[in-house]
Specification:
- This protein has 463 residues and is of the alpha/beta class.
- It folds into two domains: 127 residues, Aspartate Aminotransferase, domain 1 (Alpha-Beta Complex), CATH 3.90.1150; 255 residues, Aspartate Aminotransferase, domain 2 (3-Layer(aba) Sandwich).
- The chain contains 14 helices and 15 strands.
- The strands form four sheets. A seven-stranded mixed β-sheet has the order 2-8-7-6-5-3-4, with helices on both faces. The chain has a four-stranded antiparallel β-sheet with strand order 11-12-15-14, with helices on one face.
- Helix 5 packs parallel to helix 11.
Length: 463
């Protein structure tokens, strides 16, 4: 974003208006030890000189030509039309649409976004977005608690550890009891307690595609009153997989970032939350509906299904949501409109094909074990490598401007150990590798050669 400097007089007038004497006073509540350091670019530079200095600093950043890391944020192609629309003045505003008289255009955009989410998931209703996928999971859990009057949850399969941590954090104040299990033991766990809901991520954190139809059927047979929450973080997978509603899922939540929102160092992103006709009255957040004017000739859009108390009376609210990600929601509906059903399916197919090709090539390297090499996966797969190998791999990848895979740290392994059927060994490292449509063939080949080179440096002898 371009910067236009203020004069000293402008600054003094602004400080006087808000009632402080200096810029330093604005930050007096923040300890100096944790404030951002000064740039150190000198004083009295012209605009041109300052720009050149900052460009020189920026050139020291590593700019990656290809990404082999996902783990919750994904590098996908975004058509130029997305930015062209969301940067229009009538949309690009810090104001959050609240009442229908504020902006019919924005309310219509939110309505169209909700329609798209319902089309993708097959669910009856959705809200006007949540902060991110992890918060969407929490809102789904709160919703399940309100419906069932139970507070225990069972996670089946590998849930993203960051989502798990957010779930646990909110669970402390919401008095959730959160248990985890894998696909081998979930039937026994279902019989041991009364759960508000089971939580299933699909594709899983390790990229595995779950047999959702059989899992949902089993859950309903063993525990009919238990709701099923499906978490979808890699939302481009909806272009290829069956709609969650077809399996009897009660609530679908997840992350919309892959659908037209850049990674932007981790945010902002958008969480979505959708449910069936049976439970839509328990949806949290804003919901926009379509109606007509009194004469029936013109369409109109307004907040619906919830009273104003949902937003202004804390004791009446269904959740802690206080805003919606309107601009991010607009980006998603523009992306989906530009891509269409065929385009989104093509993106999903390219993700699968590219990832499967890389997975097949790495499976044959000595010392490398692809743990889900024979399991259907989407985008991501998990690799077991000798200890120390990743240091060589990461160094060479960065030298060649490739973002290396995600190294699973000890606390992440501990969280996923109960959810997974894999036996994590202390003498091995585990790399979560991701490939999307943005990984060109030559970069994939280069990455395979880097793998071989790293193995040689680590004492191995690949073919």
């Amino acid at each position: 974003m371009d910067f236009s400097p203020l004069s000293k007089q402008d600054i003094l007038e602004m400080l006087k208006t808000i009632g402080v004497d200096s810029i330093e006073d604005l930050f007096r509540d923040i300890p100096k030890s944790i404030r951002n350091p000064l740039l150190g670019i000198g004083n009295g530079n012209s605009e041109l000189e300052t720009r050149l200095i900052l460009e020189d600093l920026a050139s020291k950043n590593t700019v990656y030509t290809s990404y082999f890391r996902g783990a919750g944020m994904y590098n996908h192609y975004i058509p130029p039309v997305v930015n062209q629309i969301i940067n229009r003045n009538e949309f690009y505003t810090a104001y959050t649409p609240y009442q229908p008289e504020v902006s019919q255009g924005y309310l219509q955009a939110i309505f169209e976004y909700q329609t798209a989410i319902c089309n993708l998931t097959g669910m009856y209703a959705t809200n006007a977005s949540v902060y991110d996928g992890a918060n969407a999971l929490v809102e789904a859990a709160i919703m399940s608690k309100n419906i069932t009057r139970r507070n225990s949850f069972l996670i089946i399969g590998e849930l993203n550890p960051e989502y798990y941590r957010v779930f646990k954090t909110y669970g402390f104040s919401c008095e959730f009891q959160i248990l985890s299990t894998n696909l081998e033991n979930y039937k026994e766990m279902l019989q041991l307690g009364e759960y508000a809901a089971v939580v299933i991520q699909n594709p899983t954190f390790f990229g595995n595609l779950q047999d959702l139809e059989n899992i949902c059927k089993t859950v309903k047979e063993i525990s009919p009153k238990t709701l099923i929450i499906e978490v979808i973080i890699e939302s481009t997978s909806l272009g290829l997989l069956k709609k969650p509603a077809s399996f009897g899922v009660d609530i679908v939540c997840g992350e919309g970032q892959p659908l037209g929102i850049p990674m932007s160092f981790g945010g902002p992103s958008l969480g979505f939350l959708a449910t069936t006709k049976q439970h839509y009255r328990k949806l949290s957040g804003r919901i926009v509906g379509e109606t007509t004017e009194i004469d029936g000739k013109k369409k109109g859009y307004l907040l619906t299904l919830q009273a104003r108390e949902q937003h202004i009376r804390r004791e009446k609210a269904l959740s802690n949501i206080c805003s919606n990600q309107a601009l991010c929601g607009l980006a998603i509906i523009v992306y989906l409109t530009a891509m269409g059903y065929k385009g989104l399916r093509k993106v999903a197919e390219l993700n699968v094909k590219n990832a499967y090709y890389l997975k097949s090539q790495l499976k044959d390297l000595p010392g490398i074990e692809v743990l889900n090499g024979n399991t259907p996966t989407f985008n991501e797969f998990l690799i077991s490598v000798p200890t120390g190998f990743n240091e060589h791999l990461e160094k060479i990848c960065i030298q060649n401007h490739l973002l290396p895979p995600y190294l699973l740290e000890k606390d992440t392994l501990e969280i996923t150990r109960e959810m997974s059927m894999y036996d994590f060994k202390n003498e091995r490292d585990y790399l979560l590798t991701c490939v999307t449509e943005m990984n060109r063939a030559e970069h994939i080949q280069e990455f395979i050669q880097i793998f071989k080179q790293a193995m040689q440096l680590n004492g191995g002898s690949p073919k």
